Structure formats: C-alpha cells, structure tokens
Request: fold
Amino acid sequence: MADTLRRLTSTSSFSALQEKLESWLREYHIISCDQNLNRCCDLIELTAKIQGELFTILNLTAAEGRHYGGEDTLRTRLLPWLSNCSLMARSSSSDDTGLQLMQDSMDKDQRIRELSASRDSDAQKLCATRLQLESTRADLFAALEQVEVSKRKLEALDECQRQTRLLRSEVSYLSAEKATLQERLARSGSPSLLPKPGLSSSPPRSESLSRAQLTGPYRRARLLSRFCELYTLERLEAQSALRRHVADLEMVQKIIFIAVVESFNRAKRAFRQIKARVRNTLSVAHFGPESVEDAAVDYVVQNMDIYDIQSGIKDVVSAMNVNPRISFPPEVDFFLISTLIREACKAAFAMQTLEPPLDVAPATDGELYDDRKYRRSYDSERTAPLVMYHVWPALVEGDAVVVKGEAVTRRGAVWSRSPSRSSSPTRSRSLSPTRTLAFNSRRSLSPEGLTASCL
Reply:
C-alpha cells in the first residue's frame, strides 16, 4: 500500500490535473467546441486513472484491517458517495441494485456476528447450568451417604449400649465366681482347687470351667462390638480406597463382602491347625481338671499372637485374585484393603475360641431374601424377593443369627440354589451350607444378645 501511494505521489498526477484545468480555462473561449470536449475527456481520463489508484490504495488499506477493518468508514462515507456519483457509465437501476446487494451483504454479516455471539453466550450458560447440576447431584449423593453413615453410627451406638449392659452382667457373674473361689480357698486353707479324698467326685461348677469358658461371655460381647465396628469404620475406609480405582459401587461392595468372607474362611482353617498343634503338644504332659481340648483353647486365648496374621492376609488376597466374581484393575493390588482384611482375620480367629464359635452365614447371589439374616440397603427395591448381591455378611452362632448382614434386593436377580463359590477348601464348621438359619431358643442369654443388628 505504501509503495502504491508513493508511486501516486511521484507521478505528480494532481499537479498535471491542475495545470490542464487552468490551461483549459484560459483557452475555453478561443478553441472550438470539439477541442473543448477533447480537453474535458482528457481530464476525465486522468481523473479516472487517479481514482483507480486511490481505489487500489483503499482496498489494500482495508485488507490491512482484516475482515472487519474499516467497516464503519466504508458504510458511512463510501456507500453514500457511490449511491450519488457513479464512476462508470451504467444504468441507474444496476447501480441501485449493486449498492443494495452490498448493503444486504453487510447487514447479513452483522446479523451472523450477532447470532454467533448469542450462540456462544447460550453455550456458556448451558455449560454453567450443567456444571451446577452436576455439583448439585454430587452434593445430594454426599448428603445421602452422610445420612446413611449417621444412621449406622446411631445404630452402632445403640448396639454399644446393649453390649455395655451385657458386659455389666458378665462382670457381676465373674465377680460372683471370684467370690466363690476365694471362699473355697479360705475354707480349704490350700491354694489347690483339686477335689479332696472323701468329698463328692462331682466338681463344683467353678472348678469344671476353663479360663476360656469363664471369659467367654465377655469376649463374645467384645467381639460382637468389634464386628459392628468393622462395618462402620474399616468397611467405609476400604470402600473409599477402592472407589479411587473402581468406579462401579456394586463391584466395590462385592469385593469388600468377599474379602470378609475369605478372611473368616482362612482364619477358621488357621485356628484348626494351630489348635491341633497345641493339643498334640499338651497331650504329652497335661494334667489337671480340664481336658486337653480345653487346655489347648485356653493356650490359644492367652496367646492370640500365635496366629500369623500376615500369612492370613496373603492367603485372603491370593483367594480373591482367582475369584471369578471380582473385576479389578490389574495394576492395583488387593493389599489396598489390607487393613480391613487384617482386622477381619483377627476378629474371625478370636471368634473361633468361643463356645459355640461365631461365624458368617453362607450366602449366594440370587438367594431368597431373609429378613432374619439381612437388612435391605437404602438403594434396594423393597418388594424384590431375591438378593442381587451382598454388602455385608450376617454373623451367626450355630443356627441363630446374632448380627444381621446387609443385602441389595432388586427385581431381575437370578435365583440360585447353590452357595457362592469360595476359594477356601474348608466349610463353616458351625453350619451346614444347606441348612436354613433360624432363631435358637436354647441360649440362656437375654433376647437382646440373640439377634443384634449393628447395621
């Protein structure tokens, strides 16, 4: 553009135009009509050349302003001037049509820009609304989960209060047993509690009970409370850890359920093996009022660290790695929930020292929902008769349900007769897989101790 302007200045076109105009003015009345017309045509041709150069400069200048550069100037000055003065010989109708087309084109461009701006604004508003909706939905889910957690804590508090009352009664019982023993020692004057010759061969009740049997009610209450804590504390921590790697909540809950069941299976097998080794060792030189079996259990109760918990965790993880019901990212290890597995193994091992022992109830996906064994999860279909999957196992003592589990019931669940497959080679020693759980009325404890739901 600068080169064109420089060239137009160097040719002195405007000076030549001025000189020709002055010369024509001096000679206008001297020369003929044809000469005057020729002089006028020369001026028109020179003016056209100058205008052509100026229009070239106009186009180059407008191009430097990009697509919309100089739009206002062209619309307010050039278009009105073109509408009044045509540079070329053409009909008035064609001039009006061309100008109208140019005006329409510019109006359409302006309309397109306005629509584009409006569309961008609507898109931003829609995106903001979607983000707000997702935030509201997340807050709703968090609130529902918080409500559920609070409900669990309240129920756990109620269970703790019940267990506290039970523990107080057990303390009273043990105090009475202690007083009886002290009185017998004072009468006999000997620390020995063995029956003396000439006395009845039937030993007193306090002499016939082993230490494990004497502390059994207290340990049972403490283990029931610990089982409830596993659900309200370690389970939620494991669920939070798994949700960072597994998006499907159903699969996360299945993984946790299988981990707890496998922990009980491995702990029961370890208890049988340890008790057998201790019994064989004690049978060589054992003597006393209690049997070798009771003495072995007493030894295990007093030496709970004899159980290799790390080996138990590895066994549970190995069993879970080959379980076909679990879908888990291969780059993540099940040791991610080792805290839950460790605490479940410890509780399960301790529960085997009770008489009778505590165990988890057999469960299978698609079984008929039993209100005595489970409570429905908050997202269950209340009228569905079958269990889609289990969230937490039920705890049983013989045939009696002690602590309810949690299950998800939905329509469309496939009914199955066979129990869920476990990688453990052993079965529960307290229940047959095909037996139906029912309340046991033979227990001497209060009804509150028979069926306690911490869920």
